[in-house]
Design goal:
It is a single chain. The chain is α/β, with parallel strands linked by helices. It has two domains: 67 residues, no CATH class; 151 residues, 3-Layer(aba) Sandwich (Rossmann fold). Helices cover 37% and strands 16% of the residues. The chain has a six-stranded parallel sheet with strand order 5-6-4-3-7-8, covered by helices on one side. The protein is elongated and about 60 Å long. Its EC number is 2.4.99.12. Pfam families: Glycos_transf_N (PF04413). This is lipid IVA 3-deoxy-D-manno-octulosonic acid transferase.
Amino acid sequence: MVSSTKGIPLTLLNARMSVKSFKFWSAWALPLISLMLSKFALIIPLSTTQAIRFQLLQAPPSIINFAGDLKYVVEHDMSKRNIASTEDLKEQPSDRHVWMAASVHRGEEQVILAVHRLLVRRYPDLVTIIVPRHLQLAHHIVEELQKEGLHVALRSRKQKITARGLVYMVDTLGELRHLYSLTPIALVGGSFCPGFAGHNISEAAAAGCAVLTGFHVGHFSHMINEMQRLDPL
C-alpha cells in the first residue's frame, strides 16, 4: 500500500495462491484482497489456473500477464568457474551406476536408504549421491547411514568415490544444478512426507535426468503435469 502511494510499481512474479487461501479470501475478505491486488502494476501467475484465481479475486485483468512458470527460465549454461567446481567428480563415477537424491528433507533419508539397499544388490558398484535441502541436515544423515554400516564419502572433505556401494554426501552449497550433469537419474525430495510440497524439478529435467518424486508435490504439481504430457516422468 505504502509503495503504491509513493509511485513505486509493485509486481507479483510467479504468483501462486493455494486452494485454502483462495477459499478464505474469496469467502471472507474479497473487498480487502481486491483492494490489495489493485495496487499492483503487474501480476505474473505461474499457471493459467493461478491466473483464473487472481481474476476471481478481482485483480484488474489488465495487470495479469501469463508468462508461464518462471522457474523454467533458468540459465543452464555453466560458467567456467562453476564447471570447474564439479569437474573433479566427472571422472570418478564414470564407469559406475550413479543416481542422485536431491533436496532431501529430514525423514526422507530412510526412503533413500531403502532404495540404495535395493539397488546395490543388483548393482554392487552403485554410487548414491545425496544432496540435503539444508546443509545442517548432512551430519544427521551421515550418522544414520554409518549406523547402517554404509560407506559414506563427504564432498566437503574432497573424499574420493572409491568404495563399492558408496554413498556420496554433498555437504556443500551451490553445486546442485551442476551435479545433475553427473547422473542419469535424479530423485527430487521434499515430496515423500505429508506436509511437504515438492521442489523445482526443471533443473534436473533440463540436465537430461529421468526425474523421480514422491506424491507430495503440491507447489509443483502443474510443472509435473506439464512434463508428463511432454515426456512422462
